[in-house]
Amino acid sequence: MNVSVQPSAISGRIHANASKSAMQRACAAALVKPGKSIISNPGISNDDKAALDIIEKLGAKITQLADGSISVEGAGNKIIPNGIDNTIHCGESGLSIRMFTPIASLSEQQVNITGEGSLLVRPMDFFDGILPQLKVTVQSNEGKLPLSVSGPLIPQNITIDGSLSSQFLTGLLMAYSAADASDVTITVIDLKSKPYIDLTLQLLKEFGLKEPVNNNYESFYFPATATDATQTVEYSVEGDWSGAAFILVAGAVAGSVQLDGIYANSRQADKKIIDAIVDAGAKVKVSPSSVTVEKDRLLAFNFDATDCPDLFPPLVALAANCKGTTRILGLKRLKYKESDRGITLQEEFAKFGISIELNDDVMLVHGTGKISVKNHTMNSHHDHRIAMAAAVGALTADFEISIRNADAINKSYPEFYKHIAALGAKVEEA
Ligand SMILES: O=C(O)C1=C[C@@H](OP(=O)(O)O)[C@@H](O)[C@H](O)C1
Ligand SMILES: C=C(OP(=O)(O)O)C(=O)O
User: Fold this and answer.
1) 21 belongs to an annotated ligand binding site
2) Annotated catalytic sites, by residue?
3) Would the CB of 21 count as within 6 Å of ligand 2?
4) Are residue 10 and residue 28 in the same domain, yes or no?
5) What residues contact residue 225 under an 8 Å CB cut-off, 6+ apart?
6) pTM of the model as a whole
7) What would the pLDDT profile of 175-211 be if each residue is shown by its tens digit?
8) Which residue's CA is the nearest one to ligand 2's atom 7?
9) Residue 370: left if φ>0, alpha if ψ -120 to 50, beta else—which one?
10) Domain residues for 214?
């Protein structure tokens, strides 16, 4: 699908989409919890759908309720694959594959794990090194998909490298908790994306599952005490700060916006977008469950995105509208996302007349304060966050643009074009 976006002023009020980071974790927690969980405000993104499909295949019983919530009867630690070929499909979701592989390893039976698109080339060799230490037999395609695992995983004291992604640790924490790890420690070297681990620990707590003690993100200790997680849990999926970042930046560069359903006390990494928007000079009001942003004179800013890498695309859309050179730290790991995001942002924003330098771990965005279209055809590179950054950039451009492979947004935020259209953006399927 291609979408065209015309220069547009933004104003109005909308409600945030559900966070796929929270929804996928809720699915995993509901699977490994014995007994019932009711998940309200469930996400509808492709990654969320993949997670629901996976937990069903690993033994959860899912019922859609009349009010739109989902009831999940969990499998506890008795993970028994029930698909015809013992295969789970993770779609394009990095979190799903990295979280559900250790959970699937709780099963005594072999589970095959596949995915599609960019997921086929994202690194999974972590599992080749770690799972055998936990008594799991693992086979991968030279560190990539497809994988197959045969457990059951037995929690052990281990040391892992957290410098590529926090998602592997999220998976191990979930699996250790489900396996009732007792007097066991996961030691982590150089953990990145730390707030995502806070979110994982929060979900373990909310679902009554066994929680480890977090020693400064350097080690996670599972005590010997037993946990009873059989009580029914009701969990509401919170609004998505990662998608919100695009909406709030749209308000900051092209008018004003009120976004409801995002929480100031959220553990989500991407709520840090507020700091960047404030530093750039827009007017911002943060309430407990909503944020208002209004455009003002915008100037370049400095930002460390090491722990919130998904903010690069909206930050670039913001920086393009700020006079001066914006410096964003944390570039290195963008290579391993749905596209090589440093390069794709550089290529696509060059079409807006914006020059981007990539230096080791630092991105420099040379903002001119105006966006002059040099090439009308942008390409998402099948990356949802590049499609959304292009659409936000187009709001203040001097000409209409068209975005190829614009349906990439379905990975995290299927409502995105509808939401910006409701705020006044002229968006059309081309
Ligand atoms: O746990 C999560 O929900 C996520 C963690 C982050 O990945 P890394 O830990 O690989 O940075 C983030 O980029 C991804 O979109 C979602
Ligand atoms: C990188 C992302 O997700 P995941 O790693 O879960 O595929 C993302 O949402 O930008």
Assistant:
1) yes
2) 310
3) no
4) no
5) none
6) 0.98
7) 999 999 999 999 999 999 999 999 999 999 999 999 9
8) 94
9) beta
10) 20-222
